[in-house]
Design a protein that fits this description.
It is a single chain. By secondary structure, the chain is an alpha+beta fold. It has helices at residues 15-26, 42-46, 77-82, 85-94, 114-126, 185-192, 253-260, 279-285, 294-301, 307-314, 317-320, 332-343, 399-416, and strands spanning 4-11, 31-34, 53-56, 68-69, 99-101, 106-109, 130-132, 137-142, 154-158, 161-170, 197-203, 207-209, 224-231, 238-247, 250-252, 269-272, 345-347, 349-352, 360-365, 383-385, 393-394. It folds into two domains: 4-201 and 360-416, FAD/NAD(P)-binding domain (3-Layer(bba) Sandwich), CATH 3.50.50.60; 207-352, Beta Barrel (Elongation Factor Tu (Ef-tu), domain 3). The strands form five sheets. Strands 1, 2, 7, 8, 9, 10 and 20 form a seven-stranded mixed sheet that branches. Strand 1 (4-11), helix 1 (15-26) and strand 2 (31-34) form a beta-alpha-beta unit. The two termini are 24 Å apart. The structure holds flavin-adenine dinucleotide. The site of flavin-adenine dinucleotide has 38 residues, from helix 1, helix 2 and helix 13.
Length: 421
């Protein structure tokens, strides 16, 4: 049977796949990039609200592992120090792409995310990468070849013919947004070669709550405010200071997306709606001699709390009888209850919006079985995993793309150090 031969073959022409292909090709090695989608880089295109938050400056000068969710977060350290945020920024600048820092170190294109896709395509073209889009992989087989130099190790049967390669890189990403091409291919291929999979779940995703509309919360849809959100207890407690967004069907906004990556079903969330004020103490200590009504006092003490939310809160049965009462006359027990309810609003999510609306996947190929310096499988020579297909999930804010770039660079350098072009 005829087949095309390449030094390296990459399945998945997303962020990590294109980065790796460009690097391998530019080192003079023959490389093919296969994607089942006809349009490449779709996740880049829709990322960052169309402006692609392509990296985060917080990843310069530290080990970075605190920004990643994984059973082994320290796995990221080598790759992120080998190829840091500045390295990607240098590439962006070399291509004349204008960018800005939005907040918390997040870098976005001034124009559109398409500029990042075009940059990666140009980089691939410089490396004479062989593109195969709209190409479905039907089978991956390890060839029984002697371990001699340059022998092909894999055969990949596709709808566009059969390929053979010495190095096979799986860059098929996670399960988020199946509508634009996400599949479980990477996990299935990993399992085929004996890898274990940390169960994949939606991450960076809006959360839902039972009886949300019955309790009237749907009426708050559209309200956004800065909060502190937490989940877990003791050393497992994680919290974020970010914006919360009320939605028709639950909660979203950066605060909820971030915490969703840590939330475990059955666990509750605590939302501090007034994070800069100990409201219970302020309400009790400030009431003496006050003739203003409780609702006015609350507005003064919580200037960032939108009126619509505050009115909703005071309309709850436990507080409604006191809303128009003179502040000084409201019993301390009620003020404590009110303050605590806003400083520590406790909610039990019933689930999430799922992969359809997620920005990432938590879980994936278990990194215990992958070499952190090369991204090569410890179970199958010549097989590599890069990007989100692995059990590495970054925080919101450019961390996922930086992982895609950095893991791709490590794999590219590893394969380029093996054999002649
Ligand atoms: C709405 C949204 C916004 C986001 N915004 C940001 C952001 O601003 N900053 C950030 O850092 N991260 C963001 N992310 C996350 C980021 O897009 C991903 O983490 C990143 O794209 C992962 O790169 P990857 O190369 O591993 O996978 P992907 O970029 O997802 O690429 C995987 C590729 O594999 C292909 N593929 C899948 N299955 C197969 C198969 N069976 N055969 C062949 N090809 C296959 C897909 O078509 C795709 O081209 C966002 C994600 C979403 C969904």
């Amino acid at each position: 049977m005829t087949h095309s031969s390449f030094h390296s073959l990459i399945i998945g022409a997303g962020a990590a796949g294109m980065m790796a292909a460009a690097r391998i090709g530019q080192r003079g090695f023959s490389v093919a990039l296969i994607d089942h989608a006809s349009k490449i880089g779709e996740k880049i295109r829709i990322s960052g609200g169309g402006r692609c938050n392509f990296t985060n400056l917080n990843l310069n000068g530290n080990d970075g592992s605190s920004y990643y969710v994984s059973q082994q977060p320290r796995f990221v350290r080598h790759a992120l120090s080998r190829f840091c945020a500045h390295d990607f920024v240098r590439m962006v600048e070399a291509h004349g792409i204008a960018y800005h820092e939005k907040h918390k170190g997040q870098l976005f294109c001034n124009g559109s995310a398409q500029e990042i896709i075009s940059m990666l395509q140009r980089e691939c073209d410089q490396g004479s990468v062989s593109w195969h889009t709209g190409c479905t992989v039907q089978a991956v087989t390890a060839l029984c070849t002697p371990p001699e130099h340059n022998a092909e190790r894999f055969e990949i049967r596709t709808t566009q013919g059969t390929f053979r390669c010495r190095h096979l890189i799986v860059a098929t990403g996670g399960l988020a947004v199946p509508a634009i091409g996400a599949t479980a291919f990477g996990y299935e291929t990993a399992k085929q070669f004996g890898h274990s999979i940390v169960p994949p779940e939606a991450a960076l995703v809006p959360l839902r709550f039972a009886h949300w509309a019955d309790n009237g919360f749907d009426a708050l849809s559209g309200i956004a405010l800065p909060v502190r959100i937490s989940t877990g207890t003791g050393r497992q407690c994680v919290s974020f200071d970010e914006d919360l967004l009320f939605r028709h069907k639950g909660l979203s906004g950066p605060a909820v997306l971030q915490i969703s990556s840590y939330w475990q079903p059955g666990n509750s969330l605590t939302v501090n709606l007034v994070p800069d004020t100990d409201l219970s103490a302020a309400l009790c200590s400030g009431k003496s001699g006050q003739k203003i009504q409780l609702n006015t006092a609350l507005k003064q003490l919580c200037p960032a709390l939108p009126d619509r939310l505050l009115d909703f809160w005071l309309a709850q049965p436990e507080f409604s009888a006191h809303a128009a009462q003179k502040w000084a006359d409201v019993p301390n027990a009620l003020l404590h209850q009110l303050g605590n309810s806003l400083n520590a609003w406790t909610l039990l999510p019933s689930g999430s919006d799922g992969h359809k609306k997620a920005e990432a996947t938590r879980g994936g190929v278990n990194v215990k079985e992958i070499n952190p310096k090369t991204m090569e499988s410890r179970l199958q020579n010549g097989l590599y995993f890069i990007g989100e297909v692995m059990d590495i999930t970054g925080w919101l804010g450019g961390y996922n793309f930086q992982w895609a770039w950095a893991s791709a660079v490590c794999a590219a350098e590893a394969v380029a150090s093996d054999g002649a072009a």
